[in-house]
Amino acid sequence: MTSLTTLKVAYIPEHFSTPLFFAEKQGYYTEHGLAIEFVKVPEGSGRLIYLLNQGEVDIAIGLTEAFIADIAKGNDKIKLLDTYVKSPLLWAVSTGINRDQITSLESLSQHGKIGISRIGSGSYVMSFVLAHKLGMDKFDEFAICSNFKNLRDSVNESPQREKDIETSDAFMWEYFTSKKYYDSREIKQIGEIYTPWPSWVITASTKSVDAKGKQIGDFIAAVNQGIAYFNNHIDEAVQYIDANLDYSAEDAREWTKTVQFNEQVGKQPLDWQKIVVNTKQVLQQAGVLTDSDDVIDARLNQHAYKSNI
């Protein structure tokens, strides 16, 4: 009997992970000779990057802007392999339910301490994009809160809030993940902003690509099968999300109407213009990237795949 190769895969436990687990349930990883050890990362993309940098996982699926920004800043320990979700991400901007002085995005120009999961995470990178939209250079203050629950606590003056969690005025998180807490009146929405790029990518550590390139390619092929299964079994996807993740069936179904997974994972070259060039340009405009074009492009050319792995 042929032994399976183990890959450690870090993921964010949100609805977007559903095709990954459909691939497992349908046996697609095993068909490719793989045993997948999933590592749940509720903290967000900044934590995914840390795990890749430390060699604790082989692969991570996270937000496009966080990985493009980190590679463009000089991180040579990760490689961007392919698009996972083609549709943009809708970030909801939220504050505490009783924060009466904060009623709109424009309020943040006066009350502007932004809660983020980690420096370098998607919530951090998108704060620069939001600032640019509001006509600001950047937000000057951040509260580093690690995860979604702490972010919600940070905008509420609640006796249940952990003492070491900094207060913040607002934070950004994916809309459907936030909606449950609007419905329960824990937080309120004051605005929203879309990413100007396809929202999720598959990445790997540079060392793992060198040592396990074929197996990583097989993983991508299995994910593509999982996406195809998801697209053909929407009712099952809604049931899975309702049963296993923090969403109602109603919200899960509404989300399935908005999301577009990449149906050609591993079958076509990375969409360089949409994923790399467009994201880089917006990050430069927002002030996230400050090095010269030549330096940034050299880093991206080395660590983002233009052809199939």
From TrEMBL:
Any one of the GO CC terms: periplasmic space
Pfam families in the record: NMT1_2, PBP2_Ca3427_like
InterPro entries listed in its UniProt record: Ca3427-like_PBP2 (IPR054364)
Ca3427-like PBP domain location: 91-193
Protein name from the UniProt record: Ca3427-like PBP 2 domain-containing protein
Keywords: Signal
Transmembrane feature ranges: none
Subcellular location field: Periplasm
UniProt record similarity statement: Belongs to the bacterial solute-binding protein SsuA/TauA family.
Superkingdom as given in the UniProt entry: Eukaryota
Protein species of origin: Lodderomyces elongisporus (strain ATCC 11503 / CBS 2605 / JCM 1781 / NBRC 1676 / NRRL YB-4239) (Yeast)
